[in-house]
Amino acid sequence: MASDTVQNPDDERILKYAGELFHPFGITKPDPDTVVWDDNMDPDRVIVQLGEAKLPRSMMGRLTAEEWKPLLAPAIILGYFLLPRQPRDTILRLVLPLGIGEVPLTVALLKTLPLGRQDPALSISLLFATIIIWASYALLMVALWSRRAWRGLFYTADGQAADKLGREVLLATLTKYGETISVTGYPRKRLHLWPTVSQRIERLQRSR
What we know:
Elements: E1 3-4, H1 11-22, E2 34-38, E3 47-49, E4 52-56, H2 65-82, H3 86-112, H4 115-118, H5 120-165, H6 167-183, H7 197-206
Parallel strand pairs: 2-4
Antiparallel strand pairs: 1-2, 3-4
C-alpha cells in the first residue's frame, strides 16, 4: 500500500493548521479534510491540493503539527495559486524560444533540399544532422526551462509564505526540516527539478 490516511495522532491538528492558512491567502475552496502519508514521496516534498495534505511517510512523527504548519504554507501557495497558472506561463516562456530555434532549422532545410538533385545521399545526411541538432537544442531548452521554472515556483512560494508567517519563522522551520531529513539518510544535495531545503534556505536568507 503506497499511502494511508489515518496513521498519525497529529493529523487533525495538521488539517486544522492547513485550514487556518487558507483564510489569510484568500482561498475560498473547502479546507483539506485528509492527511495522506505517502510511502513514495521524497522527504523534502509537501503537497496540499485537491482537499488533502500529502506528506512523506518517512517524516511521520519526526515533526510536530506546529512545525508542519509553516511547511504547509508554501505548499498551499504552490497548489492553489502558482501551479494553476503554469500552462499560460509555459506558452510564453518555452514556446517562444523553441519557435526561434526553428528558424535555423528552416534555413538549413531550404539549403539542403536543392542538394538532393546533385547528391541525394549528402542531402539526406545533412537533413538528419540538422534534425538531430534541433532536437538536441529543443531537449536542452525544455530541461533548462523546467528546472528553472520549478525552482522559481518554490522560491516564490517561500517568499510569499515568509511575508505571511514571518521570515524567521519559516527559516527556523526549514532549518529543522533539513536537519530532520538528514537523519533519514536522504541526501540533502541531489538532482531534482525542485530545490533542496538548503537551497530554499539560502534563497530566503539572500532575500532579506
